[in-house]
């Protein structure tokens, strides 16, 4: 069994995308997914051989530290694009609560207008924002839209954001590039390039 690490908990955006990735490669029944709290911990586990691969969103705030800080022991072995779980800007329904604080995972900060909330509280995951909203840690937050569906008595949707398509990286212990660019020449965008070149100018 292959052992894949990614940011948890179960049901997180990283978990959601990793499950799609494993299904696309036909690995769903041949892989063990281990959820981590911190990518530095995951990088150390991978480098020590206690895992085979690690998935990280390319726009995660820790991505530069992981790709740079562990460049001698970990290597990007794959990259792909995938939509996230649908998200929304949610607000607590409590009418007597002053609207001051909003929770976000840093990569989602620009997904909606947060100006009505002067205090921005950063969380490590989108899942944590949903938990923080339900715990009353802030009055609004960018979380998975399903949180409002599951708790309609507590939360309302301010703005639907939907799924966001991001770039994702898979790390392994052996470099694959051999000093050259590894490009999927039959990719959808390659077909788009070819079609554009065929159009008369």
Q: Would you kindly provide a written description of the structure presented here, covering whatever features stand out?
A:
With 201 residues, the protein is α/β, with parallel strands linked by helices. The chain has helices at residues 13-24, 39-47, 63-69, 126-135, 145-150, 188-198; strands at 2-7, 31-36, 53-57, 75-83, 87-92, 101-104, 119-122, 140-144, 155-162, 165-172. The strands form 2 sheets. A 5-stranded mixed sheet has the order 2-1-3-10-4, sandwiched between helices. A 5-stranded mixed sheet has the order 7-6-8-5-9. Strand 1 (2-7), helix 1 (13-24) and strand 2 form a beta-alpha-beta unit. The longest helix is centred in the N-terminal third of the chain and has 12 residues, at 13-24. The chain is globular and about 60 Å long. The N and C termini lie far apart (52 Å). The model has no long low-confidence stretch (mean pLDDT 95).
Approximate strand percentage: 25-35%
Report the uncertain regions: none
> What does the largest sheet look like?
5 strands, mixed
Order of helices and strands: EHEHEHEEEEHEHEEH
Helix content: 25-40%
Major beta sheet, strand line-up: 2-1-3-10-4
Query: If you average the pLDDT, what whole number results?
Result: 95
- Determine Rg (CA atoms, Å): 19 Å
How many β-strand stretches? 10
Q: What structural category arises from helix and sheet content?
A: alpha/beta
Alpha carbon gap, first and last residue = 52 Å
